[in-house]
C-alpha cells in the first residue's frame, strides 16, 4: 500500500480524502468527500497488487446490481495506478453492536422489526444471486432517521478475503442478529466482536434459556435456524430470508412508532471532558504531627485537670487566676465594667434659673416618710385605708416641670394633623383623583404608561447559512453540513476538515467559517455558539454584503474576538446593523492527527 495518500489528497479527480477511519491488513477505510455529488462517501482503498483486489472489484460490481433502500450502495469501483478503491454511500447513525453495548438489549418488537428490515434486503439481494456473505451486528446501521441500513453488501466479505457467500449463510446470520438483539450475545456463523452466545454440549442455548421474557415466537425462529441438525429436521421450516421476514413481520404487526423510538438509542460519540478524580478527604493521625513553634519556656504552673482549661470550666469561686504566660491557651477573664454614674438630673428638667427646687423623686414637705395610705387632701374623710390604688392629678404633677404640657399639646396637634392629611389623601385617591384632589391629566398618564422599556435581545428567526473557505479548492467547507448548525439538534454539527497545521500565517489557511444571512438588515448585539471541541478562535463580523474572501481581505474589522469554549455567548462591543454575520474560525481544537473544529448550534440575538 503506498504511504503517500493523506487527508486532502484527491483520488480520480473527485474523491477528496477527509478522515482515515481504520486501517487493517493493508487496507484503509476513509471518509471522503465527492466533489461531483457534493456529499460524503465511504472509501475502501487497497493496493492494486493485493490478492484481494480482484475479488473486491468483482464483489463491488455484483453489489451494484442490487437496488434496495436498505443497502448503502456501491457508487464506484476503480483501479488507479497502484491503488484499487471502492466507493459506497456514507451512512450516519449507530451500528447495532454499539447500540446494544451502550444501551442494552432491544425490546422484542424492536428487535424483530430491525431484523425483519435486514431480512427484506436479503430477500431482494438473494433473488439476484448476491448474498451479503458476512452479516454481523457491525454491518447493521440505525441511521439518524430511524431507518435500518446494511453496510458492505458483498464487499465486506471480499475485503476479509472470504469467498462469495451463499443465501443459507445469510439466513443463519439473520437468526444470529435476532439472537443478539434479544440477548446481547452473538450466535451467528460470521465473526463479530460481541460476546459469544453460551453453549451446552456444543449447541447454542435458546434465547429463552439466556434471558427471561423473550416471546416464544421469536425463540422458535432462532431455535429452528440455529438449533441442532436433528431439531431443524423435525421443525416446520424457516429456511429462507423470506421465511424469516414473514415470521418477524407477523410478530411485529403495525411498526408505527418503532423507528422513532430507536432514535433515542443512537449513540453520539462526543469526547467528554474527563477531570481527574479527587480523593475523599480522610482524617488520619499523621506519623509526624505538625506542631506550631514552641513558645519560650515559662514557669511550671500548678497541676491542672486534664484537658485544656476554658473560661467556662474555671471554678466560680476563684477570685484571681494564677499568672500564666501570654501564649497559654486560656481565655482572659474580662474585667467587670464599673457601674454607670447616676444621672445628675432627670431628662428635660434643667435646674430652674430662679433658684427653685429641682424636680426629683416626689418628696413631701413634712419630714419623715408618708404612710402607705396617704391621700393628697388633708381631711379625715379623704383618708382611705386598705389596698385601693391612689391616683394623682396630672395637672398637679406637671406643675413642677416647665414646658411639659406645651410639648405634649404640640405632639397631639401634630398627630391629629397627620391623621387628617392621611384621611384626605386616601379619600382623593379613592375617587380616582390625585392626592391633592385634582382631576388627573389623561395625556400625562398615557404618556407615562406608554414609555417604552428596553427589550431583552431576542433570537433572529429565518437564518440561512453558507460555508466560507476562500483559501480552499472550491471556496466552501462541507457545505452539505451547514444546515446541521441551524437545525436545533446539538448532536449534529457543521465540521471542518482535519488539518495537519493550525490556522495562521504559517499554516495552510488563515481561517474559514460560516456566513449567516439574516434575510434583511437587522441590529446584531450577540452571537451564541455551541462548538465542537475547545478552544476555538472565533471572530464575529457584521456587514451589508456577503463576503467571498476572507474578512481581512474584504477590509472588515472584527466586532468581537474570543478564544471560545464548548458553549460561548459572544456579545459585540457595540450593537451593529447589517444583513450578514460572519463567524470566522481563526484556530481549531487539537484532535488526534491534527486540528479540527465545528459548530453544532448557533443563534444571533438582535
Automatic annotation (TrEMBL):
The keyword Membrane applies. SUPFAM superfamilies: Galactose-binding domain-like (SSF49785), Protein kinase-like (PK-like) (SSF56112). The chain crosses the membrane at residues 409-429. InterPro entries: Galactose-bd-like_sf (IPR008979), Kinase-like_dom_sf (IPR011009), Prot_kinase_dom (IPR000719). The keyword Kinase does not apply. Residues 297-307, 471-484 have a biased composition (Acidic residues). One of its GO terms (molecular function) is protein kinase activity. Keywords: Membrane, Receptor, Transmembrane, Transmembrane helix. Residues 15-317 form the Protein kinase domain. Residues 278-380, 438-493 are annotated as: Disordered. It comes from the Bacteria. Residues 443-461 have a biased composition (Low complexity). PROSITE patterns: PROTEIN_KINASE_DOM (PS50011). This is Protein kinase domain-containing protein. It comes from Nocardioides acrostichi. The lineage of its organism: Bacteria, Bacillati, Actinomycetota, Actinomycetes, Propionibacteriales.
Amino acid at each position: 500500500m503506498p504511504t503517500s495518500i493523506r487527508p486532502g489528497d484527491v483520488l480520480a479527480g473527485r474523491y477528496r480524502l477527509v478522515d482515515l477511519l481504520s486501517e487493517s491488513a493493508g487496507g484503509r477505510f476513509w471518509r471522503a468527500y465527492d466533489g461531483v455529488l457534493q456529499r460524503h462517501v465511504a472509501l475502501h482503498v487497497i493496493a492494486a497488487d493485493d490478492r484481494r483486489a480482484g475479488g473486491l472489484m468483482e464483489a463491488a460490481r455484483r453489489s451494484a446490481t442490487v437496488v434496495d433502500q436498505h443497502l448503502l450502495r456501491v457508487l464506484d469501483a476503480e483501479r488507479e495506478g497502484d491503488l484499487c478503491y471502492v466507493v459506497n454511500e456514507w451512512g450516519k447513525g449507530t451500528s447495532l453492536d454499539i447500540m446494544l453495548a451502550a444501551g442494552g438489549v432491544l425490546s422484542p418488537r424492536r428487535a424483530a422489526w430491525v431484523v425483519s428490515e435486514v431480512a427484506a434486503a436479503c430477500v431482494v439481494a438473494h433473488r439476484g444471486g448476491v448474498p451479503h456473505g458476512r452479516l454481523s451486528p457491525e454491518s447493521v446501521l440505525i441511521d439518524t432517521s430511524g431507518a435500518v441500513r446494511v453496510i458492505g453488501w458483498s464487499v465486506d466479505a471480499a475485503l476479509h478475503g472470504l469467498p462469495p457467500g451463499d443465501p443459507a449463510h445469510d439466513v443463519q446470520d439473520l437468526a444470529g442478529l435476532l439472537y443478539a438483539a434479544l440477548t446481547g450475545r452473538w450466535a451467528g456463523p460470521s465473526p463479530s466482536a460481541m460476546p459469544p452466545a453460551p453453549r451446552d454440549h456444543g449447541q447454542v442455548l435458546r434465547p429463552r434459556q439466556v434471558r427471561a421474557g423473550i416471546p416464544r415466537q421469536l425463540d422458535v425462529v432462532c431455535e429452528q435456524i440455529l438449533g441442532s441438525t436433528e431439531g431443524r429436521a423435525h421443525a416446520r421450516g424457516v429456511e429462507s430470508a423470506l421465511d424469516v421476514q414473514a415470521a418477524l413481520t407477523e410478530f411485529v404487526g403495525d411498526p408505527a412508532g418503532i423507528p422513532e423510538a430507536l432514535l433515542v438509542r443512537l449513540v453520539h460519540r462526543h469526547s467528554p471532558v474527563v477531570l481527574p478524580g479527587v480523593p475523599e478527604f480522610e482524617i488520619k493521625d499523621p506519623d509526624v504531627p505538625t506542631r506550631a513553634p514552641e513558645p519560650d519556656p515559662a514557669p511550671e504552673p500548678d497541676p491542672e485537670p486534664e484537658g485544656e482549661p476554658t473560661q467556662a470550666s474555671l471554678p466560680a469561686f476563684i477570685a484571681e487566676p494564677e499568672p500564666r504566660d501570654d501564649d497559654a491557651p486560656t481565655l482572659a477573664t474580662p474585667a467587670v465594667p464599673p457601674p454607670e454614674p447616676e444621672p445628675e438630673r432627670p431628662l428635660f428638667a434643667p435646674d430652674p434659673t430662679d433658684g427653685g427646687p429641682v424636680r426629683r423623686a416626689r418628696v413631701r414637705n413634712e419630714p419623715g416618710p408618708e404612710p402607705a395610705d396617704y391621700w393628697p387632701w388633708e381631711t379625715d374623710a379623704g383618708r382611705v385605708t386598705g389596698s385601693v390604688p391612689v391616683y394623682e392629678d396630672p395637672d398637679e404633677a406637671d406643675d413642677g416641670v416647665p414646658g411639659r404640657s406645651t410639648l405634649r399639646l404640640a405632639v397631639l396637634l401634630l398627630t391629629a394633623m397627620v391623621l387628617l392629611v392621611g384621611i384626605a389623601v386616601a379619600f382623593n385617591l379613592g375617587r380616582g383623583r390625585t392626592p391633592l384632589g385634582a382631576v388627573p391629566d389623561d395625556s400625562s398618564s398615557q404618556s407615562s404608561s406608554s414609555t417604552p422599556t428596553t427589550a431583552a435581545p431576542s433570537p433572529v428567526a429565518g437564518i440561512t447559512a453558507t460555508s466560507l473557505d476562500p483559501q480552499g479548492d472550491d471556496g466552501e467547507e462541507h457545505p452539505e453540513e451547514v444546515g446541521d448548525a441551524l437545525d436545533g439538534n446539538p448532536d449534529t454539527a457543521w465540521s471542518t476538515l482535519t488539518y495537519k497545521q493550525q490556522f495562521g500565517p504559517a499554516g495552510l489557511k488563515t481561517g474559514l467559517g460560516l456566513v449567516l444571512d439574516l434575510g434583511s438588515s437587522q441590529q446584531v448585539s450577540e452571537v451564541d455558539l455551541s462548538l465542537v471541541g475547545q478552544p476555538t478562535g472565533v471572530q464575529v463580523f457584521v456587514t451589508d454584503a456577503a463576503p467571498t474572501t476572507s474578512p481581512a481581505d474584504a477590509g472588515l474589522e472584527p466586532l468581537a474576538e474570543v478564544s471560545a469554549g464548548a458553549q460561548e455567548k459572544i456579545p459585540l462591543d457595540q450593537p451593529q446593523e447589517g444583513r450578514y454575520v460572519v463567524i470566522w474560525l481563526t484556530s481549531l481544537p487539537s484532535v488526534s492527527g491534527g486540528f479540527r473544529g465545528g459548530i453544532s448550534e448557533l443563534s444571533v440575538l438582535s
